[in-house]
Amino acid sequence: MPLIPLLFAAAAGGALSIPNLLAANSTYPPDALRAGKSAGANIALVVDAQGRVARCDTRETFGDPAFGRQFCALISANHYKPAKARDGSPVWYRFDGLYTMFLSDTAQGRQMQALQANQPAAGELAVSRLPGGVNRARVAVLLLVDPTGAVTDCQAGPTEKQSALVTAVCANRAALSQAPLTDAAGAAVSYVTNLKLDLVVDGSAPN
Asked: Do 49 and 90 form a contact (C-beta atoms < 8 A)?
């Protein structure tokens, strides 16, 4: 991967937004609640520009496997506010990562909390420097991806504060290209997605 010299630039106005997938968590399934079940699942999810779940695939489960395999059905039963570009226009949304439902007062629930807290980043990005003189930092961002896979907009992720680090990553969004996304007819569409990266100062990564 080429060395990225971090550029610091101001963010534009407005904001990207994503569907609230936690709506599926609003009512814990009664059978899972009675049995004290908690689970996690790595899922590949696509929500269309009307807020409907277009695709959901379960790749791996943790905790109670049967409960984890229910997640796509639970998520797909909801209609969401669609993702939006900075100008407010609705776009598709792609999520590829860990989804959890857990009871925090149980051993299995605490395992799911720990699993969620220790999720690895999607990749590493070699940079020329980082703020504060540190050698490594993690950042979570939202990306707006055009039909070719190029990233056209970027901002802090839902749980990340806007910072100099986020601004720096977003100023270098040309290095963050993603896979194109197509609808049921095979037409490429614009979409918003989450990305978590570990930024590593060139030469500081272990051999």
From this structure: yes
Token pair recorded at residue 88: 């407010």
pLDDT in tens, 67-77: 999 999 999 99
What is the distance, to the nearest Å, from the Cα of residue 129 to the centroid of all Cα atoms in its chain? 25
Residue 194: strand pairing partners:
142
What is the distance between the alpha carbons of residues 67 and 101, in angstroms, rounded to a whole number?
9
What is d(CA 49, CA 33) in angstroms, rounded to the nearest whole number? 33
Q: How far is CA 194 from CA 18, 96, 104, in A?
A: 9, 8, 25
CB 38 within 8 A of CB 106: yes
CB-CB contact of 94 with 45 (8 Å): yes
Q: Of 1-10, 76-85, 137-146, give the lowest mean pLDDT range.
A: 1-10
| CA pair distance 77, 61, nearest whole angstrom | 20
Task: Report residue 4: phi and psi, to 5°.
Answer: -100, 115
